[in-house]
Amino acid sequence: MEGTDPVNKKLAAALSGGAVLVVAVSGCSSSGGEKGPDPKLVSWAKTVCDAVPGPNAKIRSANAQIAAIATDSNLPPKNAQKTYADAFQDMADGYKALADALDTAGAPPGVDGGAKLQKDAAKNLAGLATSYADLKKKVDGLDTKDQGKFARGLKEVAAQSKEIGKQSDSGTQALKRLEQEDVKKAMAKQPSCKVAASASASAPAPATSG
What we know:
Small secreted protein
């Protein structure tokens, strides 16, 4: 009979970049000594940053759940199913909240091409939310009564998660393009972004396949 433990590890490894996107939004460091950004841009950054810690924490927690399940070879399929489903739902909710935050904030004031940068980043985050919601549906449909079928189903989920990894990379780049120069300086002034960045930096490393 095919075990789920190796599949759990592969799935955790495939999803290990899930929180990287949030770090791209919140991973700001303060830079002093020079004239600060436009107050309107600072206000825009506050709108975005104040919305980051909650979704960021939800995504980090979901990643931690998936990393933890990779080390539990005795977890029954039913329990594994619930853990994955809950984690994917939290990721979907977290990325949707981040996308909504950017949509609500709108284009960063005074930034050349800011509207396109903001829309691209929000679109990528919304796409990730949809992908994780799809993964949740796939996990909900797995056969937990047959461990072999469940393990094969998880392999399909792991394969799908690799595509989400590519989406995550694309989203990270979109956010980095948005978070440049004055936008980065404005975000660096926001305590909520600093808190989210600190939390992301101290998060435990996800499990890898072995």
